[in-house]
Amino acid sequence: DFKKFYETSECVDKKNKHGYLAHQGAGGKMFATDSSLYFTTGEFRNRPLAQKVDNDYGKILNIEFKSKKSKIISLGHRNPQGLYYSEKNNFIISTEHGPKGGDEININHEPQKKIKNFGWPLASYGEHYYKNYSKEILDQAPLNKSHKKYGLEEPIKYFVPSIGISEIVKIDKKKYVTSSLKDKSLYFFGLNEKNKIVNLE
């Protein structure tokens, strides 16, 4: 017995200057607490949507079960595929497909406190797949190689070249694992006291 729980107020316009690629930009990982659902969305190649707060795309959202109201937890995401929430430490770890290079692991401390901006498409450690984009598109998606310089959140880890990063799971008190779609491998790592990645294998 399926019932509609939530839908976005608008769909992505396929006729935008950046194009439309549903299979590359969907996001779609979720987890639930007792009162709400956390849910990731991609920008479906319409890159500027990820930096605008008037839509649900390129975001991590929180949707209340009772009211069905949503709020943006973070923006500036390209295609977040993995999502883990630590209630004890009150942080979200997310994994995200970059463009040509630049897959990311991001951490969001106290996610309910302030909307964080993780940079896409203003900043990325990857590159565009094509070099012949117009000046207008490149101005909207410059992929600067620093997040912090522009007031954006730096990833705690990025992969160049990309690994096709996917799900992330905590497997014991100090160890996490994320999967690679590119080489069908698993990457194990820990977080130190400053929440920096250590012992990546």
Q: What's this, in brief?
A:
The protein is 3% helix and 34% strand. It has 201 residues and is mainly beta.
CA-CA gap between termini = 43 Å
Count of alpha/pi helices: 1
What is the molecular shape? globular
- Element string (H = helix, E = strand): EEEEEEEEHEEEEE
Largest sheet: 5 strands, mixed
Strand order of the largest sheet: 1-2-3-4-8
Total number of beta strands:
13
SSE layout and pairing:
Blueprint: E1 27-32, E2 36-41, E3 59-64, E4 70-75, E5 80-86, E6 91-96, E7 103-109, E8 116-117, H1 135-140, E9 157-159, E10 165-170, E11 175-180, E12 186-191, E13 197-198
Parallel strand pairs: 4-8
Antiparallel strand pairs: 1-2, 2-3, 3-4, 5-6, 6-7, 7-9, 10-11, 11-12, 12-13
Short descriptors:
globular; mainly beta; 3% helix; 201 residues; 1 helix
Written account of the structure:
The chain is mainly β and 201 residues long. Helices cover 3% and strands 34% of the residues. The protein has one helix at residues 135-140; strands at residues 27-32, 36-41, 59-64, 70-75, 80-86, 91-96, 103-109, 116-117, 157-159, 165-170, 175-180, 186-191, 197-198. The strands form three sheets. A five-stranded mixed β-sheet has the order 1-2-3-4-8, with no helix packed on it. The chain has a four-stranded antiparallel β-sheet with strand order 5-6-7-9, with no helix packed on it. A hairpin with a 4-residue loop joins strand 10 (165-170) and strand 11. The N and C termini lie far apart (43 Å). The model has no long low-confidence stretch (mean pLDDT 93).
